[in-house]
Each structure stands twice: as structure tokens, then as C-alpha cells.
Amino acid sequence: MDAYVDESGDLGFSEKSTKFFVVAYVVSDSTVRLETYMKRVLKKLHTKKKYHYSRNELKFSRMNADCRITVLKSVYRCALDIGVVVVEKNKVRPELRKDLTILYNWLLVHHIMSALVPRLGAKDKIHVVFDKSLPRKRIVSFNDYLKNKVSYLSWTEGYEVQLSQIITNHANSEFEPCLQAADAVAGAYFQRYENEDPQYVELIKDKVRSFRYLW
Question: Are the CB atoms for 131 and 170 separated by under 8 Å?
């Protein structure tokens, strides 16, 4: 099983920051199929001149409505299921705002692993791919945090999961089409809450298996 994770919005708390922060992941049992669909969509949009040739990556924030709908329909066809975490930032407690690194790690790891770990059988493995947005030192500490979280969940919830079953990777989304699928899902939910535009969520909501609204 493969899971691709991306986010939309920012975690800042200034007046210029977004009101919401969204983390989304797409689960696929066929990475090749999902990757193929995303590449085909990019080529199709280039050919029809709906998405500029200079853009080699499907970025939801750079698309018009037609492009967004086309991409999300492809994600819907290929995704096994989807998970979403929506953070209403004005409700984040003051003590959690003091260290954005800890908050970021918790938001990207806790709810995602809480949803995915229970799905693993004794011989199953899951490959979790994150958009490479962190510097190298932060990636090391992030991965350590993820391993500790899996160990904690296994201990407290009684899951028989070994760390060797969890494989993590941080990839450049430009070269990882499946991350672009996660970006589209995060973008759809960001539009729903930040801009009160639900049209994109309506296209994929039936595939959402895990949804968390904080706080």
C-alpha cells in the first residue's frame, strides 16, 4: 500500500496567514496506475493549451476551475481512498503555536498514522511519501518522530506492527506525479474551507475514508 501526503495553506499565525491549514493523503494500491493517470492529465492539459507548457507539475493553486475538475476526476478514478485533516487555525491553542515544528510534525504524522497503521496486517508494508518541503535536518527528526509515533500507537492500541513495515520517503513533487494527486485533494479542501467553495470537494468526497476537523 502506498500513501502520498501533501498540504495546502500555511501554519503561520500572522494577519497575512491563511485561516486554514489542510493535510491530505491519497492511498493507492497501484502506484503505476495513479502515476500514469496523472501524467496523462498533464499531457492532455498541455495539448489542449489549458495549462501552460512551462509548468511540468500539476499544481492545484495554479489551475483554473476546468483544470482542477479534470485532475480531481482522475484522482477519483485511481485513488483507493483519501484522508483529510482540516485545521481551523484561530482555534489552535496558544501553547501549540509556540513551536511550529512540533505542531507541523504532529499534524502530518499523528492523524495519518492513526488511520493507516490499523490497516496493516502482519506481513503488509506501507510506503508513505511526503512532499519534500523540509531541510535535511528536519527530515531526519520528522522521520524519527514518525517511528516513535508508530511505536506508541502499536503499544497503546495493541497493533502488531513492526517499524520495518513502515517505509517513508520525502520526494520532490515535480518528479512524483502521485504527490500531485495529494496536492489536488488538499487544494480542494482548502478551497472548501478557506474560500467557501465546495465544488471541488463534491467530486471526491465519496472516496474520503478518514476526515478530521481540528479543533
Answer: yes
State the cell numbers at 24.
Answer: 491530505
Query: Sign (positive/negative) of CA torsion 85, 89, 95, 97?
Result: positive
Is this model's pTM higher than 0.90 or not?
A: yes
Q: Decide if 79 contacts 208 (C-beta within 8 A).
A: no
> How high is the pLDDT of residue 215?
86
Domain boundaries, the chain: 2-214
pLDDT in tens, 57-109: 999 999 999 999 999 999 999 999 999 999 999 999 999 999 999 999 999 99
Q: Which one is the CATH code of 2-214: 1.10.443.10, 3.30.70.330, 3.30.420.10, 3.10.20.30?
A: 3.30.420.10
Helix, strand, coil percentages for the chain (3-state, nearest 5): 55, 20, 25
Residue 148 grid coordinates:
516513535
Which residues have a Cβ under 8 Å from the Cβ of 193 and sit 6 or more positions away? 19, 20, 22, 86, 88
What letters, b where the CB count within 10 A reaches 16 and e where it falls short, cover 81-111? bbbbbbbebeebeeeeeeeeeebbbebbbbb
- Mean pLDDT throughout 150-159? 92
